Every structure is written in C-alpha cells, then in structure tokens.
Amino acid sequence: MCLVETDRLQLCHLALADAAFIVQLVNEPGWLRFIGDRGIHTIAQAEAYLREGPQASYAANGFGLYLVRRKADGQRLGMCGLVKRPSLPHVDIGFAFLETFMGQGYAFEAATAVLHHAQFDLNLSPVVAIVDPANERSIKLLTKLGLERQGNIQLAADRPPVLLFHPPNA
After folding, report:
1. Under 8 Å between Cβ of 150 and 165
2. How many domains are there within the chain?
3. Cβ atoms within 10 Å of 72's Cβ, excluding its own
4. How many angstroms separate the CA atoms of 149 and 139, rounded?
5. Range of the domain at 39
6. For 75-93, how does the pLDDT look when each residue is reduced to its tens digit (9 = 90+)?
7. CA distance 77 to 110
8. What's the pLDDT tens digit per position in 124-137?
C-alpha cells in the first residue's frame, strides 16, 4: 500500500516481498557504519525484521518506515519514514538509501514528503531526528530539511550519544 507520492517517488508500506531488498540495504557500508549491524543476512532474518519492525509499527502507531520506490521503473531505492522510540518523547524521521542512489535528491524528496505526511495526515508535531555525529551526509540533509541541532542525547546506556535535531521553535 502506497501512502505518499512525489514527482519521482512512491512511499509504500514495506512487505515481506521486500525482504531481499532489506538484506541488501542493511548490509550497505553506510548502514553498517552509522546505524549498525542488525544481524540481518538472510531472507528469513529480513522477514522477521519487517514483521517485528515496520509492520508492527504500522499496526501499533499507524506509521513506520516506508519503502522508497522510483515511480518510473519501480526500482527500490531505500526507506524513509517515522519511528516511535521509547527513549524519545517525539516521533523521529529515519532514512537510509542504497549507496548507488545517493546524491540524486531522492532522500530529500522522500524526507520532505514524510514530514508533510506526518504533519498534515497524521497530526504529528514536532517530528525530530537523531543522527550519528560522524554522519555528515545525514546532518546536511536534516539541516536542508529545516531541522536544527539541539544537542546530544543518549538513547541507551550501552549506545554512544547521537545528535538530536528539532524543527525551529519546537
């Protein structure tokens, strides 16, 4: 089910049929460096991730991470969507794209659409973001989206601090 469309993209619920794509995405060098190894290396592990992650979030929250697909040819590019973490008071936006599709404006286009969907369709405000302090590409994107750095936050005792971004005046 596709929820959001832009000029070039469709943002759709992730399905079990996307498991092979998930294996590829979560093992990209950028994912491993900035998000971490989730131990997803098989189709069965990816299906479990989809059921317990995005699909469980759709059922519980009415939103989650969405597949980003190019309208022209249906090519899977990445994922972008909304996450409700117990350690954050607000919903946050998350995104990850295959390296081959980076630098083409897809992440900005998808994230802009997700923020619009959050505000106008889901009445979620504010939407925040967290990012690894070394992830310069994502920091640049969050800034371009109009979010401002608020400081550091530690989501769990066993995890390093991340940067927290908020909309202005939020």
Report:
1. yes
2. 1
3. 8
4. 9
5. 2-166
6. 999 999 999 999 899 999 9
7. 10
8. 999 999 999 999 99
